[in-house]
Amino acid sequence: MAATDVGPVEGAPARGDITAHPPGLAARKFKDATFVFWGILATVIGLGTLIALVWDLAADGGHRVTADFFFSFPSSEPAEAGILPAWVGSILVIVTTALFAVPIGLLAGVYLEEYAPKNAITSAIEIAVNNLAGVPSILFGLMSIGIFVQILGNAARYPDFIPEGTREAMADLFGQSILTAGITLALLILPIVIVATREAVRGVPQEIRHAALAVGATKWQATNHHVMPYALPGVVTGVIIGISRALGETAPLIMIGGLTFVAFLPITRPGDATFETIGVLDEYGAAIDPTAVETVRIPHDGIVVLPDFTEQAVQAGQVLELPHGSTIQSVATWGDAAMTWLPGHWLGSEFTVMPIQMFNWTSRPQAEFLEIAAAAGLVLLLITLLLNGTAIWLRYRLRKAIKW
Amino acid sequence: VERDFTKSKARWGERIIEGSLFLAAATAIAVVVGIIYVVVSESTKFFSHVSAVEFLTSTTWTPLFDNPQYGIAPLLTGTFMATLVALAVAVPLGLLVAIYLSEFAGHRTRETIKPTLELLAAVPTVVYGYFALLFVTPLLQQWLRPFGIELPGFNLLSAGIVMGLMIIPYIASLSEDAMRSVPRSMREGSYAMGATRLETAFRVVVPAAVSGVVGAVILGMSRAIGETMIVVVAGGQQPQMVLHPAQQGATVTAFIAQVALGDLPFGTLEYNSIFAAGLALLVLTLFFNFVAFWLQRRYREAY
Question: In this predicted complex, what is the ipTM?
Answer without folding.
Answer: 0.90
